[in-house]
Structures are given as C-alpha cells and as structure tokens.
Amino acid sequence: MNTTLLQVICCTIKHSAADFKVVEVDPSGLPVDALDYAQPATQPLLSSSEGMSVVDRAAAAPRWDVLRSNEPLERLLAEEVIDQLALLARSDEALPVVVGQVEDKQQRGALRCAIRWHYPNLVTTLDGSTLVASRDTDVFPALERCVGCRDANLILKASIVPDPQLHMHATFLDSATKDDRRAFHAAFQKACSGLFSVVRDGTISITSRRKSVAVKRSREEEGATRVFTHCVVHKRNVETQRMKELISSHCGVTDGNICVAGMKDRRADTWQRVSISGDVRSKLPSGLCIHDGEGSYIMVAPNSPVIITGAPLELGDLNGNKFFLVIRCTLNAPVDDHSADVLCGTLAEKLETFSTSGMLNYFGAQRFGRGGLPGIKILQGDWCGAVAMILNSAPEVAREALYATGDFGAFRKAVNPRTHRDAHLLGECLLEVGRRHSDAALSVKLADILAQSPAWAAACRAAILKMPFYLRQLWLHAAQSHIFNKSLELCADNVSMGLLVAMPPKLPLVGSLDVVDPTTLLVLTSLSIDVSCFATGTVAGVPLRGSMRETVVTPTCCNLRKVTGRQADSPADVWVECSFTLPSSSYATVLLHQLCGLEPTDAPM
C-alpha cells in the first residue's frame, strides 16, 4: 500500500471521560494528581502580631467586627503614624501621611479598612505599593453637609462593619440645599453599597441590605479573614461553573467565594485545585463524592489533604496542564498494521517538532461555545443581534412560539435550563424587564420584536445587563479570543510552520489598554467594532482591561504511540494515545488541529 497517499480525514476525541484526562500542573511544576501531593505554600495563617513590621501587622488584622476600638490600630501601626493620622483627621492643613509600604493586596485591604473605621474623614490611596492617607474631599464632605459630622461618621462606620440588624436614622440639616442632598445620595451610593436608605419628611432611615444567601465578599474582605480551604477536586463530565455550584450548595457558601486557577473541560476526567472562603474542612472530607447525574460527579481527591491557608487561589495561578488523550484517526482508506505504524511515526515526528519549534497559540473552539458569538454583537452595540443570537440557540419549537406570540413566559417554560442555559436565563430576564419597567421605552409588543424597534433594542440591552455576570464575562472574553484568533491568522498566513520564529512574540487581547496593533485594528474594522468601545474599561458591566498573549507556545513531555487491542469501528480507523503538557491558557484541541490538519470533533455522548 502507498502510505504517502494516506491522510487523516477525521479526528475524534472524548469517546469517554477516561479518554480525555486533564491534570493541572501547579506553580512549582507538580501535577496535582500525584500520589501524596502537597499543595504549594501560600499565605500562612497568622495568629500573633508581636514583633511584627507594619506589613506583618496588616496581615494579622482582626475581623471587621473587632475593629471597633483603638487597640487594634495600635497593633497594626507604629505610634508615631497613629499620631500623624489623628492630626490629619483634625486639621485641614495637615499634609498627607505615608502609612507604609504594603506589597500584599489582601494585607492592604485590612489596613485600609482599619484606618477608615477609626478616621472616617480620611481616605487611603496607593503610590505604587506605598499606602498614603489624606483628607477625604469627596464622600465625607458630601455626607457632612447634609447630616453633620457625627452622623456622617456613624454612616461610614456602619458601611465598614455591616450589621444585619442595623436600623439607624439621621435628619437632613436645614442648611442642606437640594444640590447638597443630591450629592449626599451619590456619595452614599458610592461608599455604602452594603446599606439601604429611605428618605421620608427629611429623615433618612438606613438599614443593612439583607439577602437570603451569603453575601459575596471582595478579595480584600476575604484577605482580612485569612481563612481559605484548599483541596484538589477530581471531576468527571462536569463543567467548572457547575462544579462551583455543587461545592457552594454542599458547603453553604456562594459560588463567588470559590476560586480556581483555571477552567477545565466538561467532557473529561480532570484534576484541579480549588479554594473555598472559610474553614469548611469538616464538609469536604477526603474522598467525598457529589454526583450530578449518571456518569457525572465531583470528588475531593484522596491523594492530597484538605488544608486551610491565608490566601485564595487566583485565576492563572498554575504552571499549565498535562493532557492524556486517546484519539481515533479515520483515514481516507483502509489501513494495515504497517501503514498504521507509519502514520503514527509521522504524527510522533510532527509532535516532536512542536516541542522544539512551537505551535500557534490559537484559542480552541470550546472557548466560543455553540451558540455563536453574542459578545461580538455586544461590542458592535447591536443589542438586538446579541439577544437574537442567544435565543436562536433554543429549540426550534420554542423560537417559533416566541416569534408567533411574543410571550417570553411561554418561551422560558419551553426551554430546558440544563441543555439551553443561556436562552432560558435570557427569557427570564426579558420577562422581568417587561414586568418591572413602567418606562414606555421598555414596553415591547410582538410588532416591536419583529421590526427590531428602538423599544425592543432598549429592552434587549436591559435584559443583557440583567444576565448573570459570569455569562456576560464569558461572552465578552470569547469575543476577545475571536479577535485574537483572527489577528493571529492574519500574521500566520505568510509564515510556514518551520518559520514560527518570524511571528510577533505577542498579540493583544484587546481591551482598555492602549496596545492595539495594526493587525488587530484591521480585524476590528472588518468586524465593524469601534475601538473606542473599550475606552471606559468596561463593556456591559464586564471589566475588559486587555492583555498580551503569546502567539507561539511550546508543548513539553510529548509522547505518541499506537493503541493496540482497541476495537476499531472501521478498517480505516487508527487509535492513537497521546500525552503532552501545555502552558496555562493553551488548548489541547488546537495542538491536535495542527497535528492532524483538521479540527478534532467530540464523539457522540
């Protein structure tokens, strides 16, 4: 047989979860599924402040409910710094106070909160990593003009130490003008997000924002508690967001308080580190298994102990991922053992070339989902197009009913939230927009939907902004990735695989950073996206700061061999086992695409 005429016409992966194994590699270079795996050292728990520097004292800051007297501040700062802060709080003419150099973000949060509690008329800013205190010329004066110094102090302190039972009153001063009251409400909304205010007959009633679920805390607040549970989770056929939901339900925390170093494939066996805010070791014993339907589960990996540390995981806090894959290569003609061996040898040589020369660092197809790219429509300002794209991912019977009646309630009921999550949630948001807004501009009828009227566009925008943050973030990050892929494709058009050294080392993930190169500008123009839409740093409520991404990455630990003893579905099939390690944010499917010359497809479930 002439083996030179053989070529792979189909590359199929994920025949089972065991055929697609992904193991996170921690920052020290260790795979997290290793026997007796010990997690890398993070911020230790602190219990004493004796003999500590300013930075160490900030790290040992007590919880918010302890920051009520001067005693903790004396433990956090030197006496001369406290004296300078007190003078600054009393005098308008005092110069700003240099508090100290604090490198750790979480430690800064504890220290800034303590200073704000004791001196509400001061604010702290950063000059590099140096913390500087100065007089507040924005929030505190706006509150003081309306309710006086004493009540302004009490309001700001109440915002720092939330009390679920809080119920306080303040009265507007007779001297407060209408503009002063507007400034008060703007300052209150800016500085007191955990409080709720109602004004009646000149009296302000202030209560805590009560919620039925745990309140999602900022990273600075989390850093102040200094307690995080870390474990290794083995999941099978469960996506990362669903894993967070299962853990949050089991441990009684919000999924926003669960952090991972990176996202992992859904249809796969994956091992990764997870951190949960608080000490929940008693709820996560080693070997705990939480099932999520037939063949789907998450398990606390028994190979590594569950520990508590003083810092959460950060996205990107990993060295890469190790992949173990079984691939079915379907060729254009039946093959015998010899030709199969020749094919595997050719693929192994090409994989070895990747380990020396590198491969193009495209984003994989799974980054973009199967429902189009609504993030591109949002960047174009086409809210109707974004909604239509998401709704079109729903079953045809639900779409036909919607465009025949305009009934979003019926549409939502006809869509399965497990199989068509985005469309189901968007139906809920559109229904809520129609119920809650008395604004005529948001009152839409079937004719508005079919005609894409301004009222429909306004309703679409409001509904998109009501969608969960993680979905909006997913869409817009997918749009960034699509733009990067298009830019990389343009750069690679005239570069052969052997000349990847000629590629620009990095291309931008476009955002508010002023690093847009001519190639990316060309792509944005072709997509009808105005670069000014990134100027504010946020799009649809999602921060898009932007960054740079490598154009070429080098896989390591590459191995490829023919699998024997596995039943072939066709005489043209060759089973191949492949393993390699990729840096974080690189895709195994992209490597397979460049290895076999075509996009790999998932086997039917």
Automatic annotation (TrEMBL):
GO MF, one term, reads: pseudouridine synthase activity
- Pinpoint the Pseudouridylate synthase PUS7L N-terminal domain residues: 91-138
- What Gene3D superfamilies does UniProt report for this protein, alphabetically? TruD, catalytic domain
An example Gene Ontology cellular component term from the record?
nucleus
Which SUPFAM superfamilies does the UniProt record give? Pseudouridine synthase
Q: GO biological process: any one?
A: pseudouridine synthesis
Top-level taxon in the UniProt lineage? Eukaryota
The protein's name is: Pseudouridylate synthase PUS7L N-terminal domain-containing protein
**Classification lineage:** Eukaryota, Discoba, Euglenozoa, Kinetoplastea, Metakinetoplastina
